[in-house]
Amino acid sequence: MDFHLSEELAAVRDLAREICTDRTTSDRIRAVEDSETRVDEQLWAELARAGLVGIALPEEHGGAGLGLDGLCVLLAEQGRVVAPVPLWSAAVAAMAIATHGDDAQRRRHLPAVVSGASRLALALEELAPAEPGAPTCTATPAGETWLLSGTKAVVPSPQGADAVLVSATAEHGAGLFLVDAGADGVRWERAETTTRDLSGHLHLDRAVGRAVGTPGDGALRQTLHRATLALVALQTGVARGALELTAGYLGERHQFGRPLATFQAVQHQLADCYIDVDAAEVVLWQAVTSLTDEADDADRAVLVAKWWAAQAGLDVVHRIQHLHGGIGVDVDYPAHRYFLWGKQISSTFGGAAAALADLGAHLAVEEVAS
Fold first, then answer.
1. Predicted confidence band of residue 1 (pLDDT cuts 50, 70, 90)
2. Of 62, 164, 250, 359, which is most buried with the most CB atoms under 10 A?
3. What are the Cα distances from residue 36, in Å, to 28, 84, 121?
């Protein structure tokens, strides 16, 4: 299978790389980390002006119509420079509305998302031992609306979001619901994550929401798949950015009269990182292709990609920090940010062990069915 980027996607990659690289300097990230929201609003506005925030959305709603492929290319470039903007969560929420929402929801939210005038937050996780696909948050019908109760954990970057896409379980199955971020029955609890992002625990007490699709129709499952692959794409970018930073450092740092990069033990570790990143990218695009084509192996491909991103991504950021020596843990040097991002992403929706367990269970079901 050919995973080379099309001319259109290569153009997206180049534009995203130019904007993210120019805007995301270490000084700029440090300033954002000290800000009230921890979101680079200037970068967000520039990405919106360039048409990248709506890269995945249909053209009839102002987007570029490039779907999950375009989003993954964009997220990989964000990860390369660990740019502090909530792209993955806001974009996946918007894609869910575009795919499963009604005309009123699309008209209200999607043009504003594309222009950067508003953002959506995504609330898919809960406190352990809840599984993302079987939320304990409940949705009770109330005429044309629903009343939601429960707690959603570590909602990414809710600051500035007008609405939250919440997963909850109704009588006939789990689904997605739109809730106004400041509605009655909505309470936010601040939660700072490993990446220094300001997330929030979302407490719902009979908060009014509107269904996106119909509970039990598969909208949540598809959104979880998209969110998982969005995180995988972000992680591959983080790992590749960390590898590039480390290769440059080791090429300049000298010991015993020659660059550290010329030592065999160092080269072996860099080679392991390179193989891990390449493999993660391959399984990512395999999964994106399978999911987009609605192939029979889509569930399996997503789980494989999730495991590679969680395991290999974490291995890479561990190695690059080790290869930097003492400076790798210096918070004034950018290497530590790659470690923090890699660590956070690897545990979202469960870590490598959880992904492997889910993959094993899925393969067992396939074997019995065959």
1. low
2. 164
3. 14, 13, 17
